[in-house]
Amino acid sequence: MGFWLFDSGGVADFEMNILVVEDEIFLHQFYIDVLSGFEEDIKTIPARSGEDALAIIEQTQIDGVFIDIELPGMNGFALANKIRRIEKYHFLPIVFATGTDCDTPETYKKYRNIDYVIKPFSRDTFSKIAARFIEDVKAFKSFVPEKEGRELYFRHDAGAACIKFVDILYALTAPNRKIRLVTREGVYYKSNISFSNFLILIGDEMFVQCNKSCAVNVLNISEIRTPAYTSYKTWDILFKDAPSHVCELSLKYRKNIESLFMGTEE
């Protein structure tokens, strides 16, 4: 996915339940052999069809899944779609395995897979994808929006960064449709995620939308004021310790923003 919220103390327990949905039996052992080489506490659970996978998911907490697209009966895309409809698995790390080159931008947009691998693949190729996958699984297991002292593990277009939630000023959709995350320390860009999904991932009642394409961290607002030019539908949002940054507040979101802002001042 790319970015997740962490408890400031970290997460000690990284036991992983990895579901492998693959109808070729010999590949199940291949997955087990490769994944077990990364972590001692990885449990690989095999399923030979989408229906079997859904039955397993109903009974077992899953932390990540590899899905063969060409499954008998329900195909891999249909399975991924059903998994995404389960609230706790909205952002479960998914890797597709396929015999053809997927249209990755479209599949990411629709199914939010984190990666894909084309069959036949070598052990080295799969190992590189598995290494990235495991890091995303760790992040997924660390998703704890209810705790204080959080950090945003943000895998952006130029690398990765751990950003304290209290340092985030705002985020918006840039003209190139990328998410632009603005903090006191810098600006980060992330592609292949929608603005609405970004808000879901932040998952904090104090990080709220202020106009059609922008959301702010209300805790960092210092002032809401009428702009220098005459306007009755927009206002300027200014931030604490960041005088060079200004966000536009539209009429639609003003009441909610102001009520939260006033609440933080009490």
In short:
This protein is of the alpha/beta class. Helix content is 30%, strand content 32%.
Defining key terms:
266 residues; alpha/beta; Rossmann fold; OB fold (Dihydrolipoamide Acetyltransferase, E2P); five-stranded parallel beta sheet; five-stranded antiparallel beta sheet; 16 strands; disordered N terminus
Number of domains: 2
How are the strands ordered across the major sheet?
3-2-4-5-6
Q: Low-confidence runs (pLDDT<50, min 5 residues)?
A: 1-13, 144-148
Give the integer mean of the pLDDT values: 81
- Helix and strand content put the structural class at alpha/beta
How many strands appear in the DSSP assignment?
Answer: 16
CATH architectural grouping of the largest domain? 3-Layer(aba) Sandwich
| Shape, principal axes of CA atoms | elongated
The percentage of residues in β strands lies in: 25-35%
